[in-house]
Amino acid sequence: MSKSKLLVVIAVSSIQLASAQCVVDWNDVHQRIDGFGASSAWQGSWTTSQADMFFSTNTGIGLSLLRNHITAASSTASSATPSTSETSIMQMAQARGATVWSTPWTPAAGFKSNNSLDGGSYRGNGNNATNQAYAVQLANYVSSMKNTYGVNIYALSIQNEPDNTTATGYESCLWSGSQIHDFVTNLYSALAAKGAGSTKIILPESQNWSTDSGLYTPTLNDAGTLADASIVADHNYVSNNQIGDTNAPAALSVSGKALWETEVSQIGGSFDGSINNALYWAGRIHLYMTVAQANAWHFWWLIPLAGNTDNQGLTDVNGNPAKRMYVLGQFARFVRPNYYRIGANNSGSVQISAYKDSLSPGFAIVAINTNNSSVSQTFNLTNFPGVSTVTPWVTSGSLSLSSQTAVAVTNSSFIYTLPAMSVVTFAGAATGAASPTTGTNLVFVPVANTNINAGTYLTITNVAYVTNGTAGGGGGGGSSTLTLLGSWQNGTGDGWIDWGDLLSITNSSNTSVYSFASGVVSGYTQSLKIADSGNHQNLAIKLENIPGGMAAFLTNDLLQFTFSVPSSASSGATAGYSQVYQLAINASGYGFNGQPFSNFTETGTTNNNQSGMPNFYFSSGTPAQSQVVTVNYSSILPAITATASTGYIELIFSFNNGGGAPAYYYMNNVVLTH
Predict the structure, then answer these.
(1) I want to staple 469 with a disulfide (CB 3.0 to 4.6 A). Which of 326, 345, 473, 655 is the partner?
(2) What is the dihedral sign for C-alpha 52, 58, 63, 66?
(3) What are the angstrom distances between the C-alpha of 215 and each of 176, 186, 208, 235, 350?
(4) For the chain, percent of residues with pLDDT exceeding 90
């Protein structure tokens, strides 16, 4: 009898669920991923090992976003500057590649109805003194963090949980949707005046997901404020936060803005660091990625403050990790900013999502097995450029973000036994792509057109990649992430766009300033919106520290770009013209060499040439115009090749407008080819 009983136990423990089939489609592209993160609110400092644990992609969970708390200023003076206790933490996170963004829990007490940091309502509306002064204070904070501490604030939230009417004993403030709408324009202008116009504005950070759209729809429904806001964000708290949300999050309508989940945890009860708890959170992240289609997801605390012995942190109060920390790392360490979610359809019970990098051949597949038994899972990789192996990383009851033996991919398919109660991330790279230092075509990654107000300096991230394929074609090659800084100045000032590694060119001119820039968005073009009507303004694209950048220039002989004016820009124009006047080349060891457009071809709108230059002519109601310009620079290659085998290349465009020129025009699709 005992023997029979023993045999039954063995049979049950060895059950494996039948094989399921998952199709992962490289070409089924969904939302961009901005990252995964959590908050260090009210923390003072960390050890280096703690910073590595959270933000390192080599030894830690690889979080890419840090949310910090802003301490309110002590007065309502516009000269006052809010602060934070988390400066050193922010510096360590940034040094490990994380993006830092900030949230105020309350304005200064004098800006509120109860003159207290706890509770009360915000007094600002329209362009009143409160709105103007508080906006300047927050801009002071962004400027101070950069100039004093070297911390770049990527984004700034207007208010933490502006709808939390039950908050007691800690900083809080109530705002209405109309107040948020009015404050957005004030904050945008204040940031621009401080030279911090690239800082993105986040709203509303409601305590609940989607239940109070009235906090953000007034801003999104107004074309003026819509352009100033960048990210719609909410928290995910519910009526019983000890259990947590059990419903799938809604896909919010946010007018094309990024959608972030920015805080959630389980509040109350005792600490639970188990794999059971971790799988709950893995499921929540999965739903936010696949159902809500969020661009970013955040837990609440990284390390909870003393006395918070429940489950509000990724660790306990002493910094000991819970399994949920490692589960978050199953996403964060491998699904990096500028990855895109791709389709993953599974026939079985395992939750599977997949992601590919827009900047490299990398990809990641995350599989969540909540079953008490292992699952034999088949993955069919459809439309992938080619994959030879994938490497599994596992978090389970016994493993914590642990790498396993690589798995061979045969005929675009592989099978893996997912352990019971586990999360497995398969990290891989497409094998058919060229390396960053090979190939002959340098292509600037497409990004969306963006309209920027006058006086705004912007910092954006862009990339260039080299491919052996057709110029302008997508999908190939390795890549290098670069920082682009630019401004347009009229009169005699030069506008510089630097395609380089953390480069900054400062203009000495104090004339009127216009700026333009774009965010990285798949499926669009890099468009430089030129909104200045003066003569002979310069635009320089500098190729430096781009893998293969110099080689691509020297091995090609054609520069191709699109010069266009939308109908909306020319609808009010009187007789006039806009033209690309001249191209100059500057290379390390070579110097400027003006190259008039005497050797170019163009396709598109006809009858737009004058004196050998690409031109547009306008009269009232002129329709949209566009032409592709190809410049042959082969005649100067011998001189540049002899002096500039390493270093940089600058492509300097001179624009010339006259008469009743249009409001603006675009240059985009910049490609080197031959």
Answers:
(1) 473
(2) positive
(3) 6, 17, 11, 13, 36
(4) 55
569 has pLDDT over 90: no
Per the CB < 8 A criterion, the answer to whether 450 and 516 are in contact is yes
Residue, of 9 and 626, whose pLDDT is higher: 626
Calculated CA dihedral for residues 184, 568, 653, 514, nearest 10 degrees = -30
Structure tokens, 666: 């675009």
CA 66 to the chain's CA centroid: 13
Sign of the alpha-carbon torsion through 210, 213, 215, 216:
positive
C-alpha 17/C-alpha 374 separation (Å) is: 6
Better-predicted residue by pLDDT, 541 or 87: 87
Structure tokens at 650: 């600058």
Question: CA 33, CA 451: separation in Å to the nearest integer?
Answer: 23
Averaged pLDDT score across all residues of the chain: 77
Q: Taking Cα atoms as reference points, which of 566, 562, 541, 571 lies closest to residue 553?
A: 541
The total of other beta-carbon atoms located within 10 Å of residue 339's CB is 23
Q: Please give the Cα distance from 479 to 435 (Å, whole number).
A: 8
287/290 Cα distance (integer angstroms)? 5
Distance CA 291, CA 592 (A): 53
Parallel, antiparallel, or unpaired: how do β-strands 16-33 and 339-346 relate? Answer: antiparallel
Amino acid of residue 606:
T
Q: Which of 345, 321, 299, 337 is nearest to 395 (CA)?
A: 321
Helices and strands in the chain, H and E counts: 12, 34
Where do the domains of the chain lie, and which CATH numbers do they carry?
15-22+344-429 (2.60.40.1180), 35-336 (3.20.20.80), 441-673 (no CATH)
- Residue of 43, 48, 42 lying closest to 72 (CA atoms): 42
For residue 615, give the 3-state DSSP assignment: strand
CA–CA gap between residue 422 and residue 75 (Å, rounded): 51
Question: Which SS3 state, helix, strand or coil, does residue 228 take?
Answer: helix
Nearest to 667 by CA among 562, 546, 578: 562
Please provide the size of the chain in residues.
Answer: 674
CA dist., res. 642 & res. 587, Å (int): 11
| Nearest CA among 286, 294, 228, 282 for reference residue 458 | 228
Place of tokens 């052996």: 468
Tokens of residue 508, six digits: 């000495």
DSSP code at position 613:
E
Structure tokens at 370: 């909540």
